[in-house]
Amino acid sequence: MRRFSIIIPVYNRPDELAELLDCLTRQTYTAFDVVVVEDGSSVRAEDVARGYATSLSLHYYEKPNSGQGFARNYGMERASGDWFIILDSDALVEPDYLAIVNREIDRQQLDLFGGPDRDHPSFTPVQKAISYSMTSLFTTGGIRGKAKNAGGTFHPRSFNMGLSRQVWEKTGGFRITRMGEDIIFSIQALKMGFRSALIPEAFIYHKRRTAFDAFYRQLRFFGRARINITRYFPDTLKLVHFFPAAFTVWLFSFPVQAFVCPLLFRLSVGALLLYCILIFVDSWKQNKSITVASLSIQAVFVQMTGYGTGFLSEGWKYLREPKGTRQTGEQIEYPS
């Protein structure tokens, strides 16, 4: 039995899968196999998987589309490793990724872990700006892996996470297939007493979206997902989760402020300009690029308003639901 089985759900992304598999051929730690789950794609990755069958211990499966959470379950059901590592197909990893994971899960005696994400030098300016907004301390992205969480409270995200076979057997895997399925899974595992931590050195390069309109749709979905998590675990909704929604309401209140209270409007504009300057300077310091720094302002606005509008729309729906019909753990699919 190999120690690690790497689970990769794929949906219409054969080219990205090829880049990830190429990274896996360069791993310095080699006691692993790869499970690729084609989740009802119309653009299949079978030829890509076949091309790496001689350089990797690779298993390729096809199934009808059921969403990413259940595709991961499908892969874990067929995996042979003691540990399952889940990666998005649009990820890239360094050659020492598995060696770091192997060392840290033993050193810290972990049951599950998560790793952060970074931008790659080859990314476009838009991708780098989006990566900045998703990891910046000036947005809610700052909680996505900048520092270790104490006390075993870190909630791994499915773009870069690992879990032991024991965790899989006890939890049964992902209870829903999207809309916050990874956080729901992590919360459930932690409530069962399993130990989790961030491994900062086990980062991935996450390619994310390449255009702001697609990024907006993705973040709107993330905002809705945060409310969906509340359906299962109401006590997990924190003040920080309201920040994008409050920002969105404040931003769209500017015309009303200008009409009702010009002084308040001027103060709000000043605060917004200061916020933009802080984003620009911080991004420029990180990326050493005026272009990326300028695009980062736009990326942050797209992220905050996308998440905020999704949070508000799903939150309004949640408040109108009769309490008896709110989900408390049943395996149920919420439409996207």
TrEMBL record:
It comes from Siphonobacter aquaeclarae. Residues 5-132 form the Glycosyltransferase 2-like domain. SUPFAM superfamilies: Nucleotide-diphospho-sugar transferases. Gene3D superfamilies: Spore Coat Polysaccharide Biosynthesis Protein SpsA, Chain A. The lineage of its organism: Bacteria, Pseudomonadati, Bacteroidota, Cytophagia, Cytophagales. Keywords: Membrane, Transferase, Transmembrane, Transmembrane helix. One of its GO terms (molecular function) is transferase activity. The chain crosses the membrane at residues 239-257, 263-281. Pfam families: Glycos_transf_2 (PF00535). This is Glycosyltransferase, GT2 family.
